[in-house]
Amino acid sequence: MATIDGRPAQYGISLKQLRELMEHRGREGVAKLSEVGGVAKLCDKLYTSTNDGLRGTRTDIEHRRETFGSNVIPPKPPKTFLTLVWEALQDVTLIILEVAALVSLGLSFYKPADEDAPVLQEEEDHHGWIEGLAILISVIVVVFVTAFNDYSKERQFRGLQNRIEGEHKFSVIRGAEVCQISVGDIVVGDIAQIKYGDLLPADGILIQSNDLKVDESSLTGESDHVKKGVDVDPMVLSGTHVMEGSGKMVVTAVGVNSQAGIIFTLLGAAVDEQEAELKKRKKGW
């Protein structure tokens, strides 16, 4: 049997089972947790200790990332500059100006056979293309400035997001010691300490709690704070805020496998489908 740091490489519970377990709330969650033997048994299946946490060796951490995923939700690929230019061109006002410029240019080069036309009129017609060209150049300038601003904002936002994620630390127990690690380094099986003011970086199940209340409005829309406890509602979710109390949890889902990650993934898929549908309608129209 393959081993990792002296323990079996095969965990006692699968990623799919953990995801299904975290879908339950309240008393139903307590009942589902009891079916796997309770939180202590769950920790045994994940080869972690409720008191000492993970060993924290590089081999163990990497194996957990390979099995359960890393605590990173990959962002949508950034839009290219040419894509932003194309989107800017879809503005209705700019489309009207483009058509007007092309019509003006076309009329400026149209010369009806009229021998009696005065010389002054011929000179005005000769320079009539300037107006259409000016409109066209103005549209091009507006499009490129808009695309450049959008491109700069997106780069700044992504840079700020990466910096925030890199600076955000969280308290976990590894090797019987409390340490601060980056939220991206958290793995399934980590024992995390949570307290008032924390933004939870991963899904977990409470091992112990002290008057713990959580704001889950970002995920469920429920404005009231939800009381959490080992015997009441032991499931805590990523993306929620701790409003009162403190506690300790075992991490059961990270990244795209957490409840927040699943929602973000579905929202991204929904946006992609909506954009594809709009493109189809435009082509059909």
From TrEMBL:
SMART domains, sorted: Cation_ATPase_N
Molecular function terms, GO-annotated: ATP binding; ATP hydrolysis activity; metal ion binding; P-type calcium transporter activity
Domain Cation-transporting P-type ATPase N-terminal: 32-109
Primary enzyme class: translocase
Domain of life: Eukaryota
GO cellular component, one term: endomembrane system
Gene3D superfamilies: Calcium-transporting ATPase, cytoplasmic transduction domain A (2.70.150.10), Calcium-transporting ATPase, transmembrane domain (1.20.1110.10)
Keywords for this protein: ATP-binding, Calcium, Calcium transport, Ion transport, Magnesium, Membrane, Metal-binding, Nucleotide-binding, Translocase, Transmembrane, Transmembrane helix, Transport
EC number(s) recorded for this UniProt protein: 7.2.2.10
Signal peptide: none
Annotated InterPro entries: ATPase_P-typ_cation-transptr_N (IPR004014), ATPase_P-typ_TM_dom_sf (IPR023298), ATPase_P-typ_transduc_dom_A_sf (IPR008250), ATPase_P-type_domA (IPR059000), P_typ_ATPase (IPR001757)
Cited NCBIfam families: ATPase_P-type
Protein name listed in UniProt: P-type Ca(2+) transporter
Naturally occurring in which organism (per UniProt): Ceratitis capitata (Mediterranean fruit fly)
